[in-house]
């Protein structure tokens, strides 16, 4: 049954007649009559019948159709109100993926701003390495994610921040006195690395391969902070972005710059061609604002980029009635 025909039928009951219903809906009386006849034909019942005084009243089938039509109209009204809430960011969910490295310094303040502006929006956080986050974006588990890997088929990316990698080494280690280090200087050191599903791990592994260094021993972890603790305990050296040191005391650990230019870049990524929700678009806008703030760790670095095939696009919103007498 067509919604328009059901609405006209409800208006007949509400206003008590065909003429009044036509005026209320801005249509001709013949259109109202045609709608009722169409409903009766589809139902196989007479919906309006005449009593002994020749007054039109709802039949038993008419009462049933009227009640159900009213319910449908109320459901539609509720749906429209909820959609308006989504557009106005008064409700909804932001499904966001964040990396386990650097998420705090880069995104904690942005998340606080998002919650302050849009208290009705729930934030579902997923924290993984870049590869798992990209898989989450592809599957729809997360709508937008922050990852290191950006040149991936099927995604659009936007650079948020770029940080140099530094060597973290115990303060009493002989190499700690150097102003800078070359990767070859670390050839005989034990390396402390992130797990293999972290894109940062691949950056380090590729750099060591280019320098023809095979790590003597390696210890892996999913937590950058734990790697720093292991350095402090004298278990080896690690390479991490300078930004992760912001919230970690370095009493017995020294950060030494690398002569090689190794960068850790964090990107917002989402499925290419996806229609982003208002919540996701609002999140991107807040990250942009944060980047423009000179006090932000990522000030001035955000810029849109294209996907791997260079085809990506960067993003940058009461019825009530009681059945009664129907006037002819």
UniProtKB/TrEMBL annotation:
GO terms for cellular component: cytosol. Pfam families: HTH_1, LysR_substrate. This is DNA-binding transcriptional regulator, LysR family. PROSITE patterns: HTH_LYSR. InterPro entries: HTH-type_LysR_regulators, LysR_HTH_N, LysR_subst-bd, WH-like_DNA-bd_sf, WH_DNA-bd_sf. Residues 1-59 form the HTH lysR-type domain. Residues 296-328 are annotated as: Disordered. Residues 303-312 have a biased composition (Basic and acidic residues). It comes from Propionibacterium cyclohexanicum. Keywords: DNA-binding, Transcription, Transcription regulation. One of its GO terms (molecular function) is DNA-binding transcription factor activity. Belongs to the LysR transcriptional regulatory family.
């Amino acid at each position: 049954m067509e919604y328009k025909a059901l609405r006209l039928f409800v208006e007949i009951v509400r206003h008590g007649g065909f003429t009044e219903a036509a005026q209320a809906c801005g249509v001709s009386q013949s259109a109202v009559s045609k709608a009722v006849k169409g409903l009766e034909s589809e139902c196989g019942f007479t919906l309006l019948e005449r009593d002994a005084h020749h007054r039109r009243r709802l039949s038993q089938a008419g009462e049933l159709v009227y009640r159900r039509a009213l319910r449908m109209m109320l459901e539609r009204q509720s749906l429209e109100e909820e959609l308006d809430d989504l557009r106005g960011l008064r409700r909804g969910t932001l499904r966001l993926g964040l990396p386990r490295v650097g998420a705090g310094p880069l995104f904690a303040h942005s998340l606080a701003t998002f919650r302050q502006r849009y208290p009705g929006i729930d934030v579902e956080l997923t924290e993984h390495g870049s590869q798992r986050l990209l898989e989450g974006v592809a599957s729809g588990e997360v709508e937008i994610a922050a990852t290191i890997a950006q040149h991936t088929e099927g995604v659009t990316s936007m650079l948020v921040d770029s940080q140099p990698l530094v060597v973290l080494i115990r303060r009493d280690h002989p190499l700690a006195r150097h102003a800078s280090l070359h990767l070859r200087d670390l050839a005989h050191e034990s390396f402390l690395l992130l797990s293999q599903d972290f894109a940062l791990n691949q950056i380090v592994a590729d750099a060591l391969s280019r320098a023809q260094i095979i790590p003597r021993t390696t210890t892996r972890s999913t937590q950058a902070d734990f790697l720093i603790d292991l350095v402090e305990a004298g278990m080896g050296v690690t390479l991490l972005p300078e930004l992760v040191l912001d919230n970690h005391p370095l009493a017995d650990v020294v950060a030494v710059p690398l002569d090689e230019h190794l960068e850790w870049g964090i990107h917002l990524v989402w499925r290419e061609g996806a229609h982003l929700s208002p919540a996701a678009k609002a999140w991107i806008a807040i990250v942009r604002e944060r980047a423009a703030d000179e006090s932000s760790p990522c000030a001035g670095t955000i810029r849109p980029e294209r996907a791997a095939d260079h085809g990506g696009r960067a993003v940058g919103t009461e019825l009530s009635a009681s059945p009664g007498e129907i006037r002819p």
